Structure formats: structure tokens, C-alpha cells
Amino acid sequence: MRRPVYIAIHSFFGWLILVSFASFQFFIILGLPATAVPKTAFLAPGFIGLIVGALLGNSRFSINAENRNLESIVKRRTEELEIANKELKRENEQRKKTEKSLIIEKSKAENASLAKGQFLANMSHEIRTPLNAIIGFSDIVLSGSEKLSSVEILDYLRQIQIGGQNLLALLTDILDLSKIESGKMLVIEEPLKISSLLEVVYRLNQAQALKKKLKWSYQIDESLPEFMISDSTKLNQILVNLVNNAMKFTESGKSVYLDVVQEADWIVFNIVDEGIGIPASRQQSIFENFEQADSSTTRKYGGTGLGLAIVKHLTHLLKGQVSLKSQEEQPSGTTVSVRIPLKSILVSEVFSEIEWIEEHLFSEDNRVLVVEDNPLNQAMMKALFDILGLKIEIANNGKGAVEKMKIFIKEDRLPHLILMDLHMPEMNGFEAFETIRSLPGCEAIPIVAQSADAFIDRAQDTIALGFFDYLTKPIDRELLTDLLKKVLILNEESP
Fold this sequence. Notes:
Layout: H1 2-30, H2 39-144, H3 150-181, E1 190-193, H4 194-212, E2 215-220, E3 227-230, H5 232-248, E4 255-263, E5 266-273, H6 295-301, H7 307-317, E6 321-327, E7 333-341, E8 344-345, E9 368-371, H8 375-387, E10 392-395, H9 398-410, E11 417-421, H10 429-437, E12 447-451, H11 456-464, E13 469-472, H12 477-487
Parallel strand pairs: 2-4, 9-10, 9-11, 11-12, 12-13
Antiparallel strand pairs: 1-3, 3-8, 4-5, 5-7, 6-7
């Protein structure tokens, strides 16, 4: 209230003096004596001035107050606009990031689609090539067996075997990748002899080295312990895959070698070749699924682009690392290094090493029932057991197996082992298993499942039902022999 009062007082005196003076002069101009003018005549204008001044003062205050109010509104709106601008800027930046991410993902999807398309083309080639050899040589042997010498027949049979092994390796790669990506591949750690592991890797790749006339060797750091703990199967697969890959891309007359050293708490496997090298732009993606250096590499050297991807996955499963150094310029070559945690173990802690015994291992008193509906597989199993010196009984399906078991019970000659195919007509392996288990005296007979289903969860589920073990087709002779040693009567002359 001070400002309006001040304005009023100020206006009052100002206007009072001004108007009084003006009135006095007016009367003088008219020629009237000052005494003739009423005193109120001088005061009236002052009061009028007071009122007018107050009104003008209040108006000025109202304008100033309105200005301050407008300034406050403008400031508030400006702040709101600045906040809105910042939010728009943030949303714009986020939108740009999203668009960039979508572009990257779109590019990845397109590249993946292209890689898978290339993979299917490669796969068609890889499957048809060994199939052509298998079917072709089979036709030659079957149609011209009378004209062929035994040496020629054996050579053609070897080619058929090689074609079958190539097909199996291809299928194994695909299944391994599927099991790894679904998290269903287990790591089984056990003591392994490092020199024995490398000797196996050397021998498995020696034939290819001789065929391509490559200098193939390996060496072990003397400071390494004799034994370590790891998954020997996966480690063997990693090394065989890498050495095989190195030999594939190395020309005749050049060298490939495996150097094994210790670096602190790691064992490092260096696979070194004098091959064609890998472009720098491809050295990272070469370990991705379905990838190779380029499509021309596939046409010239073959392969599906799965090998190195599997190596990377298996190495990570073993808590290891894989790296690559390569150059295309002369002298060209590539070094792939696999680092695995070195968990050493004393020789005294290794209880025994399983030795492979080829023949005359089992007693002829053993009785084995094989339940298999496929005639080719029946013939193969018969031949395989003949090599091991064993005779087998064959049932064509689950129903036939149950009937044979009833006969065996009457004749008091129950089998020591039953190998049961799971997928058969009339009565499958699971139904036959349950029926046989319910027969008198058959509760403890080892029944081993056989199936082409190579997924580990199927094997685990089957064993959980009560099967003694699970064998994956095609049957591996070493695995089968190891199994037979657990359940059959050994020959007394066997070591």
C-alpha cells in the first residue's frame, strides 16, 4: 500500500500547486482583485488534481503489475518450451539410435539369410558328392562283380566307406551345432594323457597329410605335465577339426604342425599352416555359423562353414579361448591358437588307462539278443559281432523280441544282453522294454537302447526309464566293445 499512498500524496501537492497557480493567474488576467476570489476557488482545482493524479498513479501501478505478470507467464512458458525442446531432442536422438539399430539388425538378418542360403547350396554339394560315390561304386560292384578282381572290389568298398564316413561327419557337425546352441551338450571332464591325445590327433590326420604330400608333425613342451583333466572327446574334436581345416587349405609340399606349450595356468595348442591365408576382413566372422572366407573357397576346397564355428563353441564350453593370426601375402599362412585351462593331475592319481583289445575278448558262452527291424542293420550287427567272436539272436521287432524271450525262459537260456532298437513297427522298443521287464526272471537283464536320435536329452530320458545304456546309430565299434565288456563274460585268456 505504500506505493499508491506515495503516488497520491505526490500527485496531490503537485497538482494543487499547479492548478492554484494557474487559477490565480487566470483571475489576474481577468483583472479581478485577489480579495474578490473565493479561497475555495484555489482549493477546488487542487482536489481535482489530487483525484486525477491518484487515478493516473493507480493506472501506472496496474500497468507495471500487469507487465510483471506477463513477464512471469512468458518466463514460465519459455521454461516449458525449453523442457519440451529437450524432450523432443531426446526422443529424436532415441529414434535415431533405434533406426540405426534396426538398420544394423536388418543387415545382420540379410547377411544371415544370405549365409544360410549359401550354406544350403554348400550342403547340397557336400551331401551329393559322397552319395554319388556311394551309389556309383555300389552299382559297379553289384552289376559287374563277376568281372572285377578282389582288389578292385576292396578298393570300391573303401571308397563307399569313405563316402559314408564323410556323410556321417557332416551330420555330426550339424547335430553338434544344434546341441551346442540349445545348451544340451555336456562337458565330461576326466584325466587324459596329453601325449596320447596328440598321438591320436596325429594318426587321424596322417592319411590326409600323406595324400596331399604335406609335412605334418607335432611337438610338446617338456614343461607340461603328463596328465591333465579335461573333456578328451571335445578337445580331440577341436584339434582334429583345426588340423583338418589347416591341411585342406595348404598346398602340396608345404607344412602343417601342432605346437603345444604351457603359458602360466593355460595349455595352448597352436595349429600352424603354410596355407592360403585368410583376408583380414574375414578373420573375425570366420568363426561364425555357415561362414567361410568366400564362396569361391567353398567351391574349390569344399566344406559347409560349420567346422570353425563348432571349434569356437566347444572351446568356450571348456572355458577356453580361440584366436587367429593370418596373412595372405607371402609367406602366407595361418596360426589358430586354442587356450584351455590347465588342470594337471599326478600320475599316481590316475588309476588306470583303458587299453583297446581287438579280438578274442569275449567268451563264446555269451548270449545276445538284437532287436532290429531293418535287414541291412541286422546284417551289419551280425558281421560286427562275428568280428568279436560272438553269435547273436535277431528279432525283427518288439513283438518278435517278446516271443523270443518267452521261448528263452522255457529253455532256461536267457540272454546276457539285449540291444533294442526304439523305433519299430507293431511294437516299438519302449513297449517291448516294459513287456520284457514284466516277464519272470527278466527284471535284471541289461537292455541297451539303439537309436539314430543323437540328442543327449533323448539318451538321458531313455536311461532314466531303466535302460542300461544308449547307443547312437551308426554304432561305433569301440563304444560297443566298451559296453560289452561291462556286461558280458570275458574270455579267460583275455588280459
